[in-house]
Amino acid sequence: MAQHFLLSAAARTLSLTGIYRAGEDAAYETFCRLRWPETDGEAVCPDCGCCESYKITTRRKFKCKACHRQYSVTSGTIFASRKLAFMDVLAAIFLFVNGAKGKSAVQMSRELDVQYKTAWVLCHKMREAMQDEYETAKVSGDVEVDGAYFGGHIRPANKAEDRIDRRRLRYQTGTRRVVVAIRARKGRTLTFVTKTEAQGVDIVARRVMPGSIIFADEARHWDHLARGYAMGRIDHSEAYSLNGAHTNGAESFFSRLRKMVAGQHHFVSPKYLHQYANHCAWLEDHRRMDNGSLVRRVVRNAMAAPVSREFAGYWQR
C-alpha cells in the first residue's frame, strides 16, 4: 500500500528548529526574496519603483535614491509596522499553516511568547492574506454546493420549566450564520457567509462558470440554478450518493470546519466567520503541498497584500 503524502518526508520540507537555527538574517532574506522576486531580493521603492536605494543596516531599512523615502521590506504590506522579529513572524506563519485544523490565538501566544492580542491580530492578518487568493476566483467542471449553519447557540436553562423553545424566532440571538461552500471536485473551495442558505443561489450563479454541472441536495432554493446549469440532485433522505450525484466533498469541508471551530477556537464571531471559513478552505485546497511551500505561499501573499484596513491598529480602534 502506498504511503499517504502527508505521512511522507516529502510533506516536511521545513521545521521550526530549522527556522531558528537559520537565524534572523536568513528569515529577513526570505522576506526580501519573496517581496521582490523580480530583482532577486534587491529592494525596490514602493513609491516610485526605483531599484537603487541606500541600505540603512542598523534598522533594516532602505532609503530611495530617487524620492528619498525610507522604507522597509514590509512597508505597504499587511505586516507593515510590525514589531516582531522576522524570525518570529516566519515561525508564526509556519505554526499557522502546520495546524491541520487551524491554530488558536491562545496557542500562538504561548508558543511565540507574545500577548494574546498580538497573536490574535497576527492570525487574522494571515487569514486576510490567504483570502486574497479567492477574491475573484471562479470554479468550473463538476461543482458541489451546500450550506451549513454556525453559531447562534442558545444554552438551555437548568430547570425544565424554565426552558424555552429555541426554534422560535423571538428567542434567537441573531448571530446564527450560514457558510455556503462552492467546491469543485477537481479544483478549489469557495466559501461565503450569509444569513440564509437561499442567499447563496445568486453567489453560486456569479462564481460558477457556464457549462459546469452543479450538484446540490434536495433544498428547493437550489432549483433556480437549473435555469442556467445542468444539475445533479441528491435527496439525503434516500441516499448520500447515487449515480454520481452527491455533495460529499462539500460535506467533508463542513466537517473539517466544524472541527476547527469547536476544537480549536471554541467560539467564532459572525463578524469574522468568513475568515475562518476561508482559512479552512485554503488548508483544504493546499493539503497536498509540503509545509515549506505553504509557508512561502503565505509570505508571498502577505507581501503582496496592502495594509489591512480592519486589523492595522485594531486594539487602538
From TrEMBL:
InterPro entries: IS1016-like_transposase, Tnp_ISXO2-like, Transposase_Zn_ribbon. This is IS1595 family transposase. Residues 138-285 form the ISXO2-like transposase domain. It comes from the Bacteria. Pfam families: DDE_Tnp_IS1595, Zn_ribbon_IS1595.
